[in-house]
Amino acid sequence: MVMVTQLGKYADVNGIKLYCEIHGKGKPLILLHGGLGAMGMFGANLPALAKGRKVIAVDLQAHGRTPDIDRPLSHQLMADDIAALIKYLGYGQCDVMGYSLGGNVALQTTIRHPEVVGKLILASTPFRRDAFYPDILVQQGQVNAAAAEGMKQTPMYQLYTSIAPKPEDFPQLLEKMGKTDEERLRLLRANNRHQSTGTHRSWRRRYIPTGTCSGDVWPPGRR
Predict the structure, then answer these.
(1) Among 94, 97, 136, 178, which is disulfide-ready with 143 (CB 3.0 to 4.6 Å)?
(2) Average pLDDT along the chain
(3) pTM of the entire structure?
């Protein structure tokens, strides 16, 4: 069942009510936002993309209008959600574009469910641990529920509390994000050691066209 609201749709997939909006017409493009954000962080980029594509913008687990559920905030699990959403909406295959956290989810969607991905576009998505500036690694190590009070003046907090089903869950989101970052850095550390083996070789053999871009600006598109 898809529940239609004035703003978009909630799709029941994998036990989560995943909020998405569909803009424009043309070849479908899944658009995935960054951590502690929501689809709105794409700003003017979303309608610009919708001029020539059918853009399916998604709020990931515990972000934006999508509520949290009792499971880890895992790139792999969120990737499974996106693959299920693509099938749920009746598309055989979509191009998938992700920014930062959304880029990691897009990458995992491609690795785990290559049959539903046409092209992959990664924006500001690290593939190696040493792609991060050292101060960013320190900052990510401080993301937990205790940081919530100090973030109340940030755009991330203000966006979350303006649209989240349960605004009081922001500390819980930070706690889960901190654990997600720890797992991501662990995987990237291993990636530094095994860049030419295992998953990487298997993924490359699928020959999925991939584009990358880098640069971190809040929100993306603003100068």
Answers:
(1) 178
(2) 86
(3) 0.85
